[in-house]
Amino acid sequence: MNDPFRLDGQRALVTGANTGIGQAIAVALGKAGADVICAGRSSMEETLALAPNSTALSLDFSDPMAAKDVFEAQHIDILINNAGIIRRDDCTEFSEADWDDVMDVNLKAVFFTSQSFARAILARQGRGRIVNIASLLSFQGGIRVPSYTASKHGVAGLTKLMANEWAANGINVNALAPGYIETNNTDALRADPERNKAILDRIPAGSWGKASDIAGAAVFLSSPAADYIHGTVLNVDGGWLAR
């Protein structure tokens, strides 16, 4: 019997794969047998050295339409919408530019990249997988990250909407909601002794997560083992939301 967690013969595109969670997912998909396209605006050299069967594609998702022609040009089975940015400031001081920049990358690009991917899958009457990267802030408010919180609430909603429309046509759409993970985006929190302690005190697992913790869940949702999973936002958070 074939291993339902293997991805041999599949081709995946991972956005924002240069570092952190995106890099870990690209590496894990490659080790599971997929050919991986690492897409983003930064150098992918480090990821390509770590991820088997990987290539780089230069795309800047500050343009939400950056990937509109990618999926017609090549056969891709799995889309991981990981690219994201964050801006921090008090709500009373938050600028329109910071709002728009975050929403363009974190939400608008997710929708239009998924739209282009789905059109290609539907045109060839094939099967496809979309895994969006949501957040604990898809469920909570957070502090001083208004556009990030709004965008991640939006990602959770789009995940369910797209699943409703595409599940019957062979496209699985799900999302992962990472908890507090050791990445560049959380450097400021981990460097703040009070915030770091407050976060650790609430996590039942007692530690920050690692990017590889998200990668295993991404491989699962990309695999045949998840054939009947649609519209789910899977928390990978050390128990944070259960607290």
General description of the model:
The protein has eight helices and seven strands. The model has no long low-confidence stretch (mean pLDDT 97). The protein has a seven-stranded parallel beta sheet with strand order 3-2-1-4-5-6-7, with helices on both faces. Helix 1 (20-31) crosses helix 8 and helix 4 (96-124) packs parallel to helix 5. The protein has one domain (11-235): Rossmann fold (3-Layer(aba) Sandwich). The longest helix is centred in the middle third of the chain and has 29 residues, at 96-124. Strand 4, helix 4 (96-124) and strand 5 (128-133) form a beta-alpha-beta unit. Helices cover 41% and strands 16% of the residues. The chain is globular, with a radius of gyration of 17 Å. By secondary structure, it is of the alpha/beta class. The protein has helices spanning 20-31, 45-50, 70-73, 96-124, 146-166, 187-191, 193-202, 211-222, and strands at 11-15, 35-40, 54-58, 78-81, 128-133, 171-178, 233-236.
